[in-house]
Structure formats: C-alpha cells, structure tokens
Design brief:
Structural class: alpha+beta
Helix content: 25-40%
Shape: globular
Protein name: PPM-type phosphatase domain-containing protein
CATH superfamily of the largest domain: PPM-type phosphatase domain
Organism: Virgisporangium aliadipatigenens
Number of strands: 17
Radius of gyration: 22 Å
Pfam family, one: SpoIIE
GO molecular function: phosphatase activity
Order of helices and strands: HHEEEHEEEHHHEEEEHHEEEEEEHHHE
Distance between the termini: 33 Å
Keywords: Hydrolase
Length: 388
Amino acid sequence: MAHGSAAVQDLLLSAQESVPTRMPALLMEAAAALGTDALVAYLADYGQERLTPFLGDGSPPRETVPIDGTLAGRAYALGVPVEGDGGSRLWLPISDAGHRIGVLEVDAKVPPDAGVRAASAALASAVAGLLSSRWRYADAVERLRRGSAMQVATEIIWNLLPPLTFSATAVGVSGILEPCYDVGGDAFDYAIDGGKLHLAIFDGVGHGITASTLTTVALNAYRNARRCGLDLLDTVRSVDKWVNAQFPDLFVTGTLAELTLDEGLLRWVSAGHPGGLLLRNNQLVRDLPAPTALPLGLGRIDGPPEIAEEQLEPEDRVLFYTDGVIEARDIHGHFFGRDRLVDFVGRTLTDEVSPAETMRRLVKAILEHQHEQLQDDATALLLHWSGT
C-alpha cells in the first residue's frame, strides 16, 4: 500500500505544475508505480450517454463506450466498482461530492490485489478533484465531453450552472438540463451555507441568446442577493427588480427555495412556476402549492410574496421541474405529463439508484417520449433530505 500512497501523492504534486492535458500521462506514471498496465480516465458527455477515453499523445487507442449496456457504464451509473476480463480489468467511478465525472479504468495482467484496488480508488478520487477544479483551464476536456456542437445560448447556460449533483450527509440535490446542446432559458442553482440549502430553478421566456441572457441576469441576481445575506422575500424582490430593469418586456418563472438542514423545513416562493412534487417512500404525497407570486421581471411585487412551507420527514424527496418536462409531446400529441413523471421517478427510486442516476434515466425517458426532439427546454431538480 506504500506504493499506492506514493502514487496518489505524486499525481497530486505533479498536477500542481501541469496543464490539464497532462492528466493521461500522469495516470500512466501512477499505473507504473502501482504495477498495473494502464490507468485511463473516461469522461461522460453532457448528455450522459457515453464515456470517452481521455488519452494523451502516443497513448494506445481506446474506444468510446456507451453508458447503457457496458461494464464501464455500470460503474458510472451505479457508482460502484465493476470488474471485467476475469478481474484483471477494473472500472471505478470518478465522482466529486456526488457529481459524476466518469470512470477510471484499471488495466492489469492479473487481478489487482486489495492494496492496488484501494490505491486506485484513491486515485479516482484525486482525479475527480483535479478535473473539477482544473477543467476550465483547457478546452481539451470540454471538447472531449461534447457529443455534438453546442449552441452559443447553451454555452452561456452551462457556464452558469453548478455541478449537476451535490451530496453530503444531510442532503443531496441533483439536476438535469435538456436539450443539453441547444437549451435556451432554463437553469438551476444551489448552495449550502449557514445550515441551509438554498436552491432555485428558472425558466426564462423565449429561446436562443435572448432567453439565455435573460436567465443569466435572473440567476446572477439570485446569487448576488443570496450572497449579500438577503432573506427569501427580499431575494425574490431583488431578482424581480433586476430582471425588470434589464428586460422590461420579458419575464422569468422560477421557484426559489431554502431548506434548514437540521429541521427539514422547506420554504419556497413559486413565481409563476409549476409546483414541486413531494415524494415519501417513493410515492407522491402531494403537489406543493404554486404559484405563490407573479413571474419575476414584471415589476409588480409590491407587497410580500407568499412563502409556502412544508415540514419534510427523513428521506423525503422533492422534485422541482420546468413545464418542458411534463409538456413534452409524443407523435400523437400526448404530453409526458405529471402522472407519468411521478410514476417514473417513484419506480426508479424504488430500484435504489442514486438521485443522479434517477435524473439521467428521466432525461432518457423524456427524450424517448418526444423522439429525441424536445420542443421546449426540460429542466428538473431533485432534492433529498436524509434527516441525518
């Protein structure tokens, strides 16, 4: 195990003075230290459909693999180590605080022993942290993650978003955003501070650059108000004011919420937005009241917006979504619908998969319903309070 500790340490120290594109070479050096043939990181694309090898110059070629139906994809989807080739190949999830980045392939002539497995898992964790903090320093990682060309409006939105998933002992939150290469006005945000989880989901009217710019103002006004210490009511007022000042003829619907981590008290304002769904034991308990205020940007929030409250129980989940989720239509014009949404999420959670995987599968179900051609942005955010 001493060799394993040294391999992790060398990777971290070497990465401090290396560009991100050196990661494949650093992993091969770590492989040599562990006595394995190769360590290769595979990164998930934006649509979470495939895993693409992150290879350096002169690396032996490796194929991109689909997430569904492969051993590497199973490690990604379930977040567990998966063996292949009689145990001589190992796939380990690369994730950072619940945010799934890809998988690490450990390739050896003989099945790795417990020490190599532990060191490889530590390396996967180190790679996750390095990629999370350094991927913006080089375009190579971005290009690798793109399954097709991304529209400028979508580029704006993706650069606003936090990681799709965050999980901690008390709480977890996981989001989706589709169509991932051509989204316009949908976005979400979250942050943990002072014993509270703050989260919001936005749907800017329109499409394209105008919609993404509108939502950019709303989301950053939300972050500014939150970071200035404004309470929920004043945050809603501030977002409304800034959107109205910059786009007097447009508006944004949204839900702005906060959850106390110790008590599980959820408070929210739904500004012209669909209500959330409260799930307990993977069954719908009720629809959360909505809307409780006018859409943001109308400049007509004079009195205090109504704050709704819900006392959660341990292991409760709340699903927030934009109307593009339930209004996705099949070729016969049938909506995906609220009931189908509730049924799908409940059944998937019953399979004991993670919130992140639940949301990935939800995206696939919505796209299949509308034959891969969404007519509107579809965004959802799943909150899980453990009560711990």
